[in-house]
Amino acid sequence: MQTSILTLPRDAWRLARPYFTSDERWPAYLKLAAIVVLNLSMVGMDVVLNFWNRAFYNSLQDKDWNSFTDLLLTWKRTPGGIMPGFTGIAFLYIFVAVYRTYLNQWLQIDWRRWMTTHMVRDWLADRAYYRIALASAGGAGDTNDNPDQRIAEDLRDFVASTLSLALDLLSNVVTLFSFIFILWTLSGPVTVLGITIPGFMVWAALAYAVIGTWLTHLIGRKLVNLSFRQQRVEADFRFALVRLRENMEGVALYGGEAREQQGFGRLFVAVRDNWWAIMQRTKLLNALVAGYSQVSVIFPIVVAAPRYFAGTLDLGGLTQTAGAFGSVQGAMSWFVTSYRDLASYRATIDRLTLFRDAIDAARAGKAGVVQRVSQNADQHLQGLDISLPNGQTLIEIDDLVLQRGQSVALQGRSGSGKSTLFRALAGIWPFAKGSLEHGTGSRLFLPQRPYFPLGSLRAAVSYPEDPKRFTDAEIITALTIAGLEHLNAEMHHVDSWSTRLSGGEQQRLAIARALLIKPDWLFMDEATSSLDAASEAELLGKLRMVLSHTTFVSITHRDAVAATAQRRYRLEGGKLVAAE
């Protein structure tokens, strides 16, 4: 993605604006105002220290002991007014520095909490997370990668960098205008080729900063795209490691360690190569910035030295001039010294902007099968057209009624689209059109591979309901009926249930979930396929006995399971055909 640092303010405000126009804007503005005041106080103290330096070094030059101790410990009356002692300035400086950081961190966590809450809400709304994943799998490019990193890390970096860079820029602007008049007065005029130039050191600082800024941008502009890519390849490598942790048993059973090692190595090569490119570019940038900073230390003294040796400038004036020049030149050179941070910030904003756009596009995209609630208790499908992400038509159903109280079994060859139809009925498949009219009764969908949230067994079996909705006795009964009575004692134990339990146990736990929720309609996509035929028949028999008022719609490969249904269908050639 080709982007420019020059558009940073506009793009940053696009991301920041929702928070600063939200219901929490006034507390945010108060904290921000306090931080700005404290930052400006730091600038004010720098101005005071500039004049203090002049008085202090003059006391050294004059060997004035009383002035020396007064300027260190208490205060001293000078021609320009009362000059506070260094001790008082230092204590005030410490107080301001501590609370500036404290309030900054307070605003950071509040802002990050708000952005995280709203981005996660939008990511989950309308199943945007699922549609983004489908679009990415369908070849939509790299704009949707690693949402975990964008929410957890990029939001954190955006908030911290926005405050840091914006406040630093503000301080530098105020510093520039605070010291530029001091430097103008101290530097005096200079005559070059018969032309008198007033405030010549101000112009020297400006020229120095302009040259440095141009060279810095020329050398460092490639860092923006390199930083963007580095965040991506780092996230890809981390995701692969997490994926291994979630599939350890499968890798171990296959003996796939060598292949995993190759995969990790390939991903880390991308990390290393991009890092190497960053190193090369950073080396050139560091050489420029370091040289620029070193020259700026001696440059003002060299320029002002002729006046000092001519006797028109005392030692205190020389040090004050050098300090003022350093402040003016440093403020003008903010772009130079902050370029690496700006490049990283640009990459963070790009990643968040792309993610935000992907969420908006997913929520505004194809809605899938239109779900309508009616007084009719049946499920009525009309004009159903299901496609793959690439646009290829997979299933067409003109009209189908699933009657309440009449169990249905759906079969078909692998790859015929049974699971995609299951997703379309659930309303999560975006590449579909048509309508589904259903009653007000509750529906529960059990996929072949169940999902379990992080937490206790009680939370896992209750999902997606609130665990507090069910009593311990109800959960124990459900686990026992599902054949998981050996887990009753671990109801409140926290574990990674998706890795600890076997495939069959996971499917039994999903059945226990259905026993608790007691839906009016239960859709199952090979939800008991990990069990042996006898165990599957026994478990489904218990399920139908307990949920006697539930209508079952099952996708299965096993004829024995399909034979228990009152109506049977097969998917053949993209059409739904009634089975004999």
Q: Gyration radius, to the nearest Å?
A: 35 Å
Strand order of the largest sheet: 10-13-14-8-15-16
Supply the number of structural domains: 2
- Overall shape: it is elongated
Give the tally of β-strands.
16
CATH superfamily of the largest domain, please? ABC transporter type 1, transmembrane domain
Q: Main β-sheet, in a few words?
A: 6 strands, mixed
Question: What would the CATH topology of the largest domain be?
Answer: ABC transporter transmembrane region fold
Q: Ends: how far apart?
A: 57 Å
* Share of helix, binned: 55-70%
Structural class: alpha/beta
Uncertain runs: none
If classified by CATH, what would the architecture of the largest domain be? Up-down Bundle
Highest CATH level, the class of the largest domain: Mainly Alpha
What count of helical segments does DSSP give?
20
Strand content: 5-15%
Overall mean pLDDT: 85
Key phrases:
six-stranded mixed β-sheet, single chain, 20 helices, Rossmann fold, 2 domains, elongated, alpha/beta, four-stranded mixed β-sheet, ABC transporter transmembrane region fold, 580 residues
Describe what this molecule looks like in 3D.
There is one protein chain. With 580 residues, the chain is α/β, with parallel strands linked by helices. The chain has two domains: 5-364, ABC transporter type 1, transmembrane domain (ABC transporter transmembrane region fold, Up-down Bundle); 370-578, P-loop containing nucleotide triphosphate hydrolases (Rossmann fold). 63% of the residues lie in helices and 13% in strands. The chain contains 20 helices and 16 strands. It has helices at residues 8-20, 25-61, 65-73, 86-124, 128-137, 147-187, 200-220, 223-246, 248-254, 257-309, 315-332, 334-337, 339-364, 418-426, 457-462, 472-481, 497-500, 503-517, 533-546, 559-562, and strands at 75-78, 81-84, 190-192, 195-197, 370-373, 379-387, 393-402, 408-412, 432-438, 443-446, 455-456, 494-495, 521-525, 551-555, 567-572, 575-578. The chain has a six-stranded mixed sheet with strand order 10-13-14-8-15-16, sandwiched between helices. Helix 2 (25-61) runs antiparallel to helix 3 (65-73). The protein is elongated and about 110 Å long. The two termini are 57 Å apart. The model has no long low-confidence stretch (mean pLDDT 85).
